[in-house]
Design goal:
The protein is of the alpha+beta class and about 350 residues long. The chain folds into three domains: about 100 residues, Uridine Diphospho-n-acetylenolpyruvylglucosamine Reductase, domain 2 (2-Layer Sandwich); about 140 residues, Uridine Diphospho-n-acetylenolpyruvylglucosamine Reductase, domain 3 (2-Layer Sandwich), CATH 3.30.465.10; about 90 residues, UDP-N-acetylenolpyruvoylglucosamine reductase, C-terminal domain (Uridine Diphospho-n-acetylenolpyruvylglucosamine Reductase, domain 1, Alpha-Beta Complex), CATH 3.90.78.10. The chain is about 30% helix and about 30% strand. Strands 6, 7, 8, 11, 12, 13 and 14 form a seven-stranded mixed β-sheet that branches. The chain is globular and about 55 Å long. The chain starts with a helix and ends with a strand.
Length: about 350
Amino acid sequence: MTNRVKIIMNSKISKIIEKCLKENPCEVDIRYDEPMSDHTTFRVGGKADCWVCPDGEGFTTFCIDLLSTASAEQVPVFILGGGANTVVSDKGIRGIVLDMNMWNGESVWALLAGEDEFVIRSGSSIDEAADAAAAAHFSGLEFLAGMPGTIGGAIWMNARCYEREISDILSWVEIICKEPSGEYVIKRFNIDRESASKSEGDVFHISEFGYKKSPFQDMECIIISAAFKLKKGDKEKILEDMENKRQDREDKGHYQFPCAGSAFKNNQKFGKSTGQIIDELGLKELNFGGAKVAPFHGNIIINTGKATASDIRSLMDEVTKRVEASTGFLLEPEILFIGEW
């Protein structure tokens, strides 16, 4: 992008944000040319034209207006959660990055039969949400303890670990979405587990969720909150289970280096995990620049300290090529590559 084009883009963006704030006052942190390496767990990535992190009572109306106005002005908007499953290009991201991290917090709504809906804003840290549920003596989020990222991102990708996935406990999800008319509105989608077929209207059947897959991936939307159906439990046992999960992640090396957890999805048709396949091919510690296949896990790529986004992508491409050449299996990335490549 030339300096002239950049100046024109930033001028257009500043006018959009000024207009949206005037009509929808809220607390907001605005930064131009913001390094995305500061907002991803891989610690790589170029600059965003504009990074915006709103908060406060006007959050939802500001977001709706921002999406609508930016769309009309043909300025792209990227929704950022915890940056735990993304690699941002070294060239950065054009347009606006809308950071959800200040939109956090939780509440408990009592229901019948000893179950409660634990309502969580999408910008809440996954790990902190598990802590909050435990503090309220609710069981159900323990399997997420120690996982990086935000609740919104976890729902979008239907995060899975320890043989459980987030859709197992979802009750409803509230989103901002684009209507066929082009208007952005707030909708709540209930999760149907009872009917035999896919539901219609503002309802998603549980069958529409799958391995690392949610129906929200096929929508132009922002997840803003969700309710989880949890059960009362023994606080000490809940905390013990959570600590075991965190320790297991630490023992597996998840926190040793900047990374994004699993680099590739598993595929049951392969007959074994992706990490095992990569390990058996002797690809542990294969490196490209500052990116390396972790010596402690075949399906984790780490930033050894000086990796670029291009290093990570090139290494993943090389692993994919070697696995396909040796086994015929085509690996599917779990990591999302974002920005101008």
